[in-house]
Amino acid sequence: MDIIYFDNNATTKVAEEVIEEMQPFFCEFYGNPSSMHTFGGQISSKIREAREQIAGLLGCEPSEIIFTSCGTESDNAAIMGTLGALPDRRKIITSRVEHPAVLRTCRELKNHGYTIVELGVDKYGQLDLAQLEEQIDDDTALVTIMYANNETGVVFPIEKIVEIACSKDVVFHTDAIQTVGKMPLNLAKSKIDLLSLSGHKLHGPKGIGVLYVRKGIRLSSFMLGGHQEAGRRAGTENVPGIIGLGKACQLAAQNIEYENSSVKHLRDKLENALLQACPDCRLNGDKENRLPNTTNISFEYIEGESILLLLDKYGICASSGSACTSGSLEPSHVLRAMGVPFTVAHSSIRFSLSRYNTEEEVNYTVQKMPQIINQLRELSPFVAE
Ligand code: PLP
């Protein structure tokens, strides 16, 4: 049997159309876009086209796009680049539920004397915007808050957050790595200053990311070297990656409606059936304000990792919020920040769907899951308690 892939927030299948588009840029059009010759020029014009396709999805100007190597680099470049451009400001405001690409970068900056404020969230994973407003002061260089959470799918009210940052004249960055391709965006109508995205989360290739930088925003260069990306990010362009991302964005624009209807329908079907069929399980996150493809459910009294292993036996790929750090399995920092008890957080599973999933896959998973849960609960020492 083919695998059933419900781990699309980790990475996605590269669309066939994307591969087709990338192929000629390995062996046929392999030149360096910075070269003076016509061969190089042809490639730089293809990069221009890809930039336009990406700008089309984001609703921004092509010149506002900087190519990076991944989402992590985009996040790092937004944070470090803003601090470099505003050397007199020493404070960053972020949230406790960010991806490590933001959280670890901010925590490292703390060791270098910066003040880092990590805003907490409520039991639904939502921020207290009054607290954000209170924290912004004259020393604040940047507010960096993710658009949607990778573990729970919870979507923050980004436009309200931007308004607050903007009213206080503070630069605003959002990690939209899980959002782009799943929710419609129109940056021309938004005051977002900086936005990160990553190719491999929207059926594009790995190793390519984008940092959107709104016209007029000052950002110091994070990578020094050549003059690529108008001097804003040095390094020879990942040409096949850029071409692939352009195509992936074009496809994403065509499929956004489908993501919010059919993919959402499948996610809801899976979620409702699991919550009904498995006793003692609970949904983590904000049911109303969520990505259309993500559900995060805790199956109490058993460990998420054990569920994943049994799902894997049936060819079903999902994910748990735990991260294996220094040999010990820590439950998700996101669920812990939401006040989910330690053992309940440990029993969480994230299913993240894509436009390639089918009703049959959902039905099969719904059929297998109660057996898996029962089997594990029979062995669980917590059930008797
Ligand atoms: N930010 C979020 C919200 C993510 O989900 C991820 C990847 O899982 C990243 C950042 C890192 O992106 P990349 O894998 O492209 O470095």
Major β-sheet profile: 7 strands, mixed
How far apart the termini lie comes to 38 Å
Question: What is the overall silhouette?
Answer: globular
Give a list of the ligands: pyridoxal-5'-phosphate
> What series of H and E elements makes up the topology?
EHHHEHEHEHEHEEEHEEHEEEHHEHH
Radius of gyration: 22 Å
Helix percent band = 40-55%
| Order of the strands making up the biggest sheet | 2-8-7-6-5-3-4
List how many beta strands DSSP finds: 14
Total helical segments: 13
Structural class determined from secondary elements? alpha/beta
Taken as a percent bin, the fraction of beta residues is 15-25%
* Mean pLDDT score: 95
* Uncertain parts: none
List the helices and strands and how they pair.
Blueprint lengths: L3 E2 L10 H7 L1 H4 L10 H21 L6 E4 L2 H15 L5 E5 L4 H11 L4 E5 L9 H7 L4 E5 L13 H10 L3 E5 L18 E5 L10 E5 L25 H39 L3 E3 L10 E6 L4 H10 L2 E2 L5 E3 L2 E3 L2 H5 L4 H5 L1 E5 L6 H21 L1 H4 L1
Parallel strand pairs: 1-11, 3-4, 3-5, 5-6, 6-7
Antiparallel strand pairs: 2-8, 7-8, 9-10, 10-14, 12-13
Helix pairs in contact: 1-8, 3-8, 4-5, 8-12, 9-12
The structure holds pyridoxal-5'-phosphate.
What attributes characterize this protein structure?
385 residues; alpha/beta; 7-stranded mixed sheet; 3-stranded antiparallel sheet; 13 helices; 41% helix; globular; binds pyridoxal-5'-phosphate
